[in-house]
Amino acid sequence: PAETNQSNPLSLCLQMFSVAPRRFLPDVKNPCWFEELRGDVSADPYGSNLFGRSFRQIQLIFEQLSGSFTQRLTRHDGRLQLLRCLPYFYIIGQPKCGTTDLYERLRLHPDVRLTPPKEPHWWSRKRFGIIHSGERPQTRFPLDHYLDLFDPVALQIQQSLLGNSSSNIITGEASASTMWDNDAWLYLYGNSTGAEPPSLVQDFIHALQPDTRLIAILRDPVERLYSDYLYFGTANKSALDFHQKVCESLRMFEGCLRDAGLRACVYNSTLNKAMSVRLEVGLYVVFVLDWLSVFSRDQLLVLRLEDHALNPRLSMSRIFRFLSLGALSDQRQRQISKSPVSNPRRASDRDLGPMRPATRELLTLFYSPFSQRLAEVLQDESFTWDL
To answer: pLDDT (tens digit, 9 = 90+) per residue, 58-91?
Structure first.
């Protein structure tokens, strides 16, 4: 049965800290800890995991892990313990900006271990019971179900510690909704907090992992919106249909701005569901400022897809330095930089051609001031995209 939305933010934080500690193992680079186990350890530990029920690939991984579960347990002070881990880094967004390509190239580094799915969407959706964007909450995915996803990496870290005093293995995830999708706040707070969400995804991540590393990759918001439309659109896609949807959505968003502030409109889930294209996702500066209100600037690496596409070796080198990963051989660097592009535009979508010039003009006029402000915040003029 669907769960109600009565859990408050404090209780959600307390629930998280009842599972994960505030401090992690000092000799393991990735945030990991030993969790004390109670009850029958011979039962299938992953049998009720909601991710396993949703993804066949994950179910198969869990079946393999179940077979060696008791062998992974250690004993401390007479109590059984299991090594558990959270991601060391998060690729937080944005959709249709190259997150899949970053993720696939990152996995080629020998110290990085990534497990499916690439996008669990736990922080933004599934912990509230939202399976797909725009749906009402159903059964919440508990934190321990999310942690189960990283058990394959925890096992590798545990094995790397045999005969070694430390481990440099790290893991991460790349839910492209993490940066911007806070539609669940209405279900969490109801109508009791006014027009803006009092807490966001980043507040919860910071509460659990104040030292985590965050990566965002952005692109020209005009092009991003068209790519988003082509990828997520269904039937009857065309440049004309896109133009009509843009005009309709611009009218709705500008109508909201006449009655409320920018931030209130960006996080207005009712408005976002009503618009037929996701205009709000390209208002990057709103999200960047909100993330920087919680995390320090040196914890957030912001890249441009245009730069990554032009020189993937350089952008990946920046990421490796940001994550304090070890140096690579020239051969491994070439392998990473020459890896085929992941998740390119489908041929059928390319055949639809570019957006109309009139559409581009409307969107350029809309996004230009926000991109200019983003460039000021990041102190990098390239983030204006010359709009």
So the answer is: 999 999 999 889 889 998 888 899 999 999 999 9
Give domain status of residue 275, yes or no. no
Domain that holds residue 114: 9-218
3-state secondary structure of 170: strand
- Residue 109 amino acid letter: H
Indicate the pTM of the whole model.
0.93
Nearest to 58 by CA among 157, 175, 163, 146: 146
pLDDT digits (tens, 9 = 90+) for 349-379: 788 899 999 999 999 999 999 999 999 999 9
Establish if 89 belongs to a structural domain: yes
33: which strand partners? 84
Has residue 123 been placed in a domain? yes
For residue 228, the surrounding DSSP H or E stretch is helix 221-232
Tally of domains within the chain: 1
Reference 124, options 89, 85, 93, 87; nearest CA is: 93
Average pLDDT rounded to a whole number, residues 229-239: 89
The strands making up 79-85's β-sheet, listed across from edge to edge, are: 32-36, 79-85, 74-76
Quick one: tokens of 226? 């068209």
Whole-number Cα distances in Å, 295 to 171, 201, 214, 282, 301: 20, 12, 9, 21, 11
| Residue 329 CB coordination number (10 Å) | 9
DSSP characters over 9-44: HHHHHHHHHHHS-SS--TTBSS-EEEEEP-S-TTS-
Please report the DSSP string for 50-78 in residue order.
HHHHH-HHHHHHHHHHHHTHHHH-EEETT
Distance CA 122, CA 93 (A): 14
Determine the Cα–Cα distance for residues 326 and 102; give it in Å rounded to an integer: 17
